[in-house]
């Protein structure tokens, strides 16, 4: 990676942030979502603490509806790197029948992601949770701090964020309060893919195009992993050459038609396709400014 | 996503070659509410093809509700819902775009008077600032303030974009008059390089391409200037500074110091000094996950090892031997107050500087600077958005450079220990005069039966009786004496020298 000047700069800044978390926080954890950004975070963590081990565990909030390929990748890759993985699931909500069709996306996300995350953090006693969110993903994230303060209920108050100057981070909190830390704040989607390419970082195969069974509804491609995904009368899955641009729960993540089965092709597609990354995520569009509302409630 | 060369046209390798040479420019924007700043940024994002179709759709939809015309570029950058409703930006937002030459990070900050805090925040990480001036209004009080803050925060490059030229008939005389007025302000900041460009953000004149409407202007468009202006040289050219973030000891045979080189460069074999201890040693290795490096320069996060076994801890500095930083217990600094709760003289705050946190006492506000007139004004405390020159005493020896020499080792924040809020941003201007004293090594004091005994360490340990007690009974005189001893850095007998947060 010797000549990727902007990536070197972003890498160095992210490493600085992670080291600052470990130096100043009591019990940090890395929120591992299995996606491409999480893969980049893991590589950065390896680099930040080399030649020592990564000094914090990973926490995965498993909704129970993640793609099978994601879970396989998670278990294999984290074991390979010798990292400690904690998986937390809101089993109570699942037993009550939580799914996006029965409960609606807002209530389902609230129970399986937000509540589950807050419970997972509390159970582990974690005071700093690092995540892979980027400011270029969504408008309300453009104003997120690198070190984002959360009150004792884990909630984000956009009016009460600490000013962040230079790269001097204020990590001080009272007992019960916590920090969310975003080492990839200044990376763009293209930076992430270029870094994965330059660094040869393993990612979930779902990002690469191959023929997959999909329900085709207009422009949307719906994966059919979960039995509760409702089909229209007479509707049958078709084998479509496609890939996932971002990974979430299978019922709420649409695929895009694509021939991109290698990293160069993905990068090429990224430059020519003019659709923003979260657009295939149903949940961001359920109300105007919806990400902002989820964040206030404690969603990552 | 951005206006990068299409890999369809060139080969993928050529494309990567081009991408891999790009560097990163961080800039900030300042302008008053109606200067058209959001429109300018929206226009830069839109014209550099950094806006996705669905994002454009969502703001076109929203524009309809606010009865604006076709595309309201300002809506691309207004993030939070409450702000969208009020139609003003009230916090720092970060935007990203790229051209075939560079990647850009914009710290988009509001220009309204009460939001000095945000402008300072945005400028703190920026190498370049764009100040917008409305061509119809000319240089206003705000313009002066924006230039002042850019200068104060050590911005290397200033761009003055004179906007809304379409509304003054693209008149060259208007542009020249504003340029002349603005240059008068800039005489205060000789270190700032400036570039003046006449634009219309709404129409797109001189934003990306040179305007046909202003043939009299021969300079580069705003984007051309942003793509080519040299930045970042100052920190690479400055003396080597390495704040130790963490001590890395994975096994008995490895002891390294992790951190980011904030200025200068380093090679194995370089002679260095550890501060504040003053121990001399040599760099052994520059260790990274990708292998040892032969050299590393400012901006790189690495792990250094030294040829000698020296006791180093987080917050210490490894620096070049030629250019020593300053070391003191009291500093002079310019503070920008960021919190609703005003400053209190005599109050103790947590001071975070590089990788170090310390107790620090805000001694005095020596001078307040009005952000309106930029003149000195009355007052001995600082309230939200106020700027002042202060004296701060730190509990432990404090190692620094002046902010004008080094942005990383010359900057700090103050944290209120009760609320943990970041209350102030500080830029160090020098050591406070009264503190430029080396500690009197080996001399200490203790109180015994109301008598203050001042003696050498040997004097205490050998025979205390031999020391002549100094009898001070007047409490005020005693207090003055204690103050004096503290100033002279004479410690109480037996005080731990590493934790010098002692109170007399």
Structural description of this entry:
The complex is a heterodimer of chains A (300) and B (504). Chain A is α/β, with parallel strands linked by helices. Chain A has helices at 5-24, 36-49, 68-80, 91-95, 100-103, 105-124, 189-199, 263-272, 290-297; strands spanning 28-31, 58-61, 85-88, 128-130, 147-150, 178-181, 210-217, 220-223, 238-243, 256-257. Chain A is globular. Chain B has 504 residues and is of the alpha+beta class. Chain B folds into 4 domains: 12-231, P-loop containing nucleotide triphosphate hydrolases (Rossmann fold); 236-320, Beta Barrel (Elongation Factor Tu (Ef-tu), domain 3); 326-435, Translation factors (Elongation Factor Tu (Ef-tu), domain 3), CATH 2.40.30.10; 443-492, no CATH class. In chain B, the strands form 5 sheets. Chain B has a 7-stranded antiparallel β-sheet with strand order 7-15-11-12-14-9-8, with no helix packed on it. Chain B has a 6-stranded mixed β-sheet with strand order 2-3-1-4-5-6, with helices on both faces. Chain B starts with 11 loop residues before the first helix and ends in a 12-residue tail after the last strand. The relative contact order of chain B is 0.08. Chains A and B meet through α1, α2, α7 and α8 of A and α1, α3, α4, β2 and β3 of B.
């Amino acid at each position: 990676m010797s000549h990727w000047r902007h990536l070197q700069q972003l890498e160095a800044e992210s490493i600085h942030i992670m080291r600052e978390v470990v130096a100043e926080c009591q019990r940090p954890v890395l929120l591992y979502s299995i996606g491409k950004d999480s893969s980049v975070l893991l590589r950065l963590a390896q680099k930040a603490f080399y030649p020592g081990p990564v000094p914090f565990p990973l926490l995965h909030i498993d909704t129970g509806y993640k793609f099978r390929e994601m879970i396989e990748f998670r278990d294999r890759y984290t074991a390979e790197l010798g990292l400690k993985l904690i998986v937390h699931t809101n089993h109570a909500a699942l037993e009550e029948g939580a799914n996006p069709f029965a409960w609606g996306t807002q209530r389902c996300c609230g129970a399986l992601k937000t509540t589950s995350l807050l419970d997972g953090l509390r159970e582990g006693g974690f005071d700093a949770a690092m995540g892979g969110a980027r400011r270029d993903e969504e408008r309300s994230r453009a104003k997120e701090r690198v070190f984002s303060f959360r009150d004792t209920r884990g909630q984000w108050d956009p009016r009460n964020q600490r000013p962040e100057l230079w790269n001097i981070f204020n990590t001080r909190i009272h007992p019960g309060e916590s920090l969310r830390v975003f080492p990839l704040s200044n990376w763009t989607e293209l930076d992430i893919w270029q870094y994965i390419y330059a660094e040869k970082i393993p990612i979930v195969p779902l990002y690469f195009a191959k023929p997959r069974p999909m329900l085709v509804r207009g422009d949307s491609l719906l994966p059919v992993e979960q039995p509760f995904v409702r089909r229209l009368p007479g509707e049958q899955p078709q084998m479509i050459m496609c890939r996932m641009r971002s990974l979430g729960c299978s019922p709420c993540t649409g695929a895009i038609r694509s021939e991109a089965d290698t990293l160069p092709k993905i990068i090429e597609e990224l430059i020519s396709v003019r659709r923003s990354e979260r657009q295939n995520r149903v949940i961001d569009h359920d109300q105007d400014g919806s990400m902002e509302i989820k964040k206030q409630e404690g969603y990552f | 996503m951005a206006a990068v060369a299409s890999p369809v046209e060139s080969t993928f390798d050529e494309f990567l070659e081009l991408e891999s040479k790009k560097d990163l420019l961080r800039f900030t924007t300042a302008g008053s509410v109606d200067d058209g700043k959001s429109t300018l940024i929206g226009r830069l994002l839109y014209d550099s093809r950094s806006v996705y179709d669905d994002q454009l759709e969502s703001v076109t939809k929203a524009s309809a509700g606010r009865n604006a015309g076709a595309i309201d570029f300002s809506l691309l950058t207004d993030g939070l819902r409450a702000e969208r409703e009020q139609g003003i930006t009230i916090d720092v937002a970060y935007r990203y775009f790229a051209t075939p030459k560079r990647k850009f990070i914009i710290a988009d900050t509001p220009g309204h008077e009460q939001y000095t805090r945000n402008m300072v925040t945005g400028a703190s990480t920026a190498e370049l600032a764009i100040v917008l001036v409305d061509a119809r209004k000319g240089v206003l009080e705000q313009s002066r303030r924006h230039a002042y803050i850019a200068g104060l925060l050590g911005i290397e490059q200033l761009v003055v974009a004179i906007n809304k030229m379409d509304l003054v008939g693209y008149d060259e005389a208007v542009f020249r008059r504003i340029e002349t007025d603005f240059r008068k302000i800039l005489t205060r900041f000789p270190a700032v390089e400036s570039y003046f460009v006449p634009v219309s953000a709404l129409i797109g004149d001189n934003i990306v391409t040179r305007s046909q409407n202003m043939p009299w202007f021969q300079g580069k468009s705003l984007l051309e200037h942003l793509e080519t202006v040299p930045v970042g040289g100052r920190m690479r050219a400055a003396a080597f500074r390495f704040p130790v973030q963490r001590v890395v000891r994975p096994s008995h045979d490895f002891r390294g110091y992790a951190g980011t080189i904030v200025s200068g460069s380093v090679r194995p074999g370089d002679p260095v000094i550890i501060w504040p201890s003053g121990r001399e040693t040599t760099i052994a290795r520059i260790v990274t996950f990708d292998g040892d490096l032969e050299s590393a320069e400012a901006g790189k996060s690495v792990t250094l090892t030294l040829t000698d076994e020296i006791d180093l801890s987080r917050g210490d500095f490894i620096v070049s031997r030629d250019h020593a930083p300053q070391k003191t217990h009291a500093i002079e600094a310019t503070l920008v107050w960021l919190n609703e709760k005003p400053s209190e003289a005599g109050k103790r705050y947590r001071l975070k500087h590089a990788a170090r946190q310390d107790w620090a006492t805000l001694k005095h506000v020596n001078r307040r600077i009005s952000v309106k007139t930029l003149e000195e004004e009355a007052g001995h405390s600082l309230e939200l958005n106020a700027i002042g020159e202060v004296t701060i005493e730190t509990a432990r020896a404090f190692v620094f450079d002046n902010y004008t020499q080094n942005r990383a080792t010359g900057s700090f924040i103050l944290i209120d220990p009760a609320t943990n809020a970041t209350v102030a941003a500080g830029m160090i201007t020098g050591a406070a005069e009264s503190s430029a004293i080396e500690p009197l090594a080996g001399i200490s004091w203790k109180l015994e039966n109301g008598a203050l005994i001042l003696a050498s360490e040997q004097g205490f340990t050998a025979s205390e009786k031999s020391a002549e007690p100094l009898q001070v009974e007047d409490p005020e005189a005693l207090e003055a004496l204690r103050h004096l001893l503290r100033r002279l850095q004479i410690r109480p007998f037996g005080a731990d020298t590493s934790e010098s947060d002692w109170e007399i």
